[in-house]
């Protein structure tokens, strides 16, 4: 069996200018990064705003498990299937983070016969967007420390510096550090922290900004510290906005690449959904909607995280709304949720499947609350039995949703045509009545409780007096109308990764809260979630190498 990278290397890629032509984009409206990657021009992005919007399809999934779900693979397969059916479609995805590439997950370009390519370049440095975001964030942090060193005219309280430096790698040793050691000229000694780049506020701002003007306005609002009187100090106050914008000038333009079947794909931005809002850039999604009749996009991790944040943060801020939602599941993952060990998932076990299917039905119920048509795509594995597949098919039908088997990994677009046809039928015959979960006017605690009880199924929320005081301060500062972005484990509806299936009676424990004023949401940390992951005992990096011909091996 060939690996994903071997399949990707055998792909017959078209020059990116030919991919652009499929969307009516001329060569003058792209800036090529080599032969197979390009950025869209600002002139094009401005010109297409007058175009009619296509249909927006969101792909999400059940909670991830070691058995795999294949959400990105299915997303790409659906896009390829639309093209096979003669439809003009664009796939809109996030860029992969180096953290999981070298950590546990490996690459994030899809899999099998449903990949975006060039796969190895996408998974590594791509067009440099993440490096630009990292540099912009760290420039701001450096300018803040320099301001303090040069006399601290803003009277910044060094105990209340909230901007964190970032790096796009899993490095637990950088979670809590001390800086400024050494000579007097080396700065003030203080505690500092790193996040992974995809959890930084600059990444969130980057992905939610409409254009350069909006990006700069958001950067201006970004709180980096508080002064001795408790007043906020922003990136604008320390004079960092212009230089940060200069670093992001090229990165903010969406990237165009292709799938194995030469279907256009816009891949841009990449916040994590367990610790950030988990969606590709607003610019890329809106461009896709203007360039094609169908935009197929995805949101990170399970629907309790990615889809909720797509609806309640991205849609709220951008004005877009989905016309249909695809929920990806696998028999294997559902049996894992039903208590079957990973090594036994290939055996038929209807009892375990029934127990684990509560995870699927929980996500369906949640998605229906947003008044959007839901289609369930069961990602097929060779070990699945007919009885298991039919059980899921009937379960989904009983909930009023359409169903299809997807063989995107094995057959690419051909294996996902049934899913595409079902979606076309939905889009032609069912109208989305999309609504968000809560109104802006709801207070912060009520918003947290709404998501915890309505989406997670929690019995309640535990918030300490200290955190409640911070929430009160945020509301007094005018941030009470912002949506909330809950950072939570992706493995469970709860904040405890060991509670599989559809747990009941649990409570969500809020550990901290802070505002990302530039991004425009309040971040809520729950459970043991961390914004800087660590490497596993045997990281994926151990298997990655470059041979004597410059070919990368071991990358997924």
Q: Name the average pLDDT.
A: 95
As residue ranges, the low-confidence spans are none
Radius of gyration (Å):
23 Å
**Percent range for helical residues?**
25-40%
Distance between the termini: 13 Å
The beta-strand count equals 25
- Alpha-beta classification: alpha/beta
How would you sum up the global shape? globular
Number of helices: 19
For the report, how would you describe the main beta sheet?
12 strands, mixed
Q: Tell me the strand percentage band.
A: 15-25%
Characterization of the model:
With 556 residues, the chain is an alpha/beta fold. It is built from 19 helices and 25 strands. The strands form six sheets. Strands 1, 2, 3, 4, 5, 6, 14, 15, 16, 17, 18 and 19 form a twelve-stranded mixed β-sheet that branches. Strands 20-22-23-21 form a four-stranded mixed β-sheet. It is globular and about 70 Å long. The chain starts with a helix and ends with a strand.
Brief rundown of the structure:
With 556 residues, the protein is α/β, with parallel strands linked by helices.
């Amino acid at each position: 069996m060939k690996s994903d990278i071997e399949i990707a290397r055998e792909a017959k890629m078209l020059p990116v200018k030919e991919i652009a032509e499929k969307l009516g984009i001329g060569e003058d409206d792209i800036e090529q990064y080599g032969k197979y990657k390009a950025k869209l021009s600002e002139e094009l992005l401005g010109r297409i705003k007058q175009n009619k919007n296509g249909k927006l399809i969101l792909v999400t999934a059940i909670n991830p498990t070691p058995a795999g779900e294949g959400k990105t693979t299915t997303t790409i397969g659906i896009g390829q299937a639309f093209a096979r059916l003669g439809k003009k479609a664009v796939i809109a995805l996030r860029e992969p983070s180096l953290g999981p590439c070298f950590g546990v997950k490996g690459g994030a370009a899809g899999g099998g016969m449903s990949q975006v390519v060039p796969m190895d370049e996408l998974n590594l440095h791509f067009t440099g967007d993440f490096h630009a975001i990292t540099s912009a964030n760290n420039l701001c942090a450096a300018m803040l420390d320099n301001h303090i060193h040069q006399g601290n005219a803003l009277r910044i309280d060094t105990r209340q510096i909230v901007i964190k430096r970032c790096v796009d790698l899993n490095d637990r040793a950088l979670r809590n550090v001390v800086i400024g050691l050494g000579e007097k000229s080396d700065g003030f000694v203080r505690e500092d922290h790193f996040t992974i780049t995809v959890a930084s506020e600059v990444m969130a701002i980057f992905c939610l900004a409409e254009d350069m003007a909006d990006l700069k306005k958001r950067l201006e609002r970004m709180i980096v510290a508080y002064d001795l009187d408790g007043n906020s100090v922003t990136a604008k106050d320390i004079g960092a906005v212009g230089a940060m914008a200069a670093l992001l000038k090229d990165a903010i333009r969406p990237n165009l690449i292709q799938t194995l079947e030469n279907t256009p794909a816009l891949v841009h931005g990449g916040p994590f959904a367990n610790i950030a809002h988990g969606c590709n850039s607003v610019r890329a999604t809106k461009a896709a909607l203007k360039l094609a009749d169908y935009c197929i996009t995805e949101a990170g991790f399970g629907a309790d995280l990615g889809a909720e944040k797509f609806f309640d943060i991205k849609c709220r801020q951008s004005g877009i709304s989905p016309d249909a939602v695809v929920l990806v599941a696998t028999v294997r993952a559902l049996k894992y949720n039903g208590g079957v060990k990973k090594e036994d998932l290939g055996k038929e076990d209807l009892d375990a499947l029934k127990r684990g299917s509560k995870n699927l039905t929980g996500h369906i119920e949640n998605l229906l609350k947003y008044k959007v048509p839901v289609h369930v795509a069961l990602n097929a594995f060779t070990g699945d039995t007919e009885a298991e597949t039919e059980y899921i098919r009937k379960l989904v039908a009983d909930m009023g949703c359409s169903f299809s088997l997807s063989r995107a990994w094995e057959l690419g677009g051909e294996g996902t045509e049934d899913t595409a046809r079902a979606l076309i039928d939905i889009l032609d015959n069912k109208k989305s009545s999309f609504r968000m979960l809560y109104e802006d006017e709801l207070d912060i605690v009520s918003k947290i409780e709404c998501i915890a009880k309505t989406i997670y199924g929690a019995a309640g929320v535990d918030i300490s007096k200290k955190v409640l005081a911070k929430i009160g301060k945020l509301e007094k500062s005018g941030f009470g109308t912002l949506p909330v972005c809950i950072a939570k484990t992706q493995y469970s509806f709860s904040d405890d990764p060991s509670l599989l299936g559809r747990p009941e009676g649990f409570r969500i424990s809020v550990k901290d809260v802070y505002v990302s004023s530039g991004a425009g949401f309040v971040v809520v940390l729950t459970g043991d979630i961390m914004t800087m992951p660590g490497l596993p005992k045997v990281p994926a990096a151990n298997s990655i190498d470059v041979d004597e011909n410059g070919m990368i091996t071991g990358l997924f």
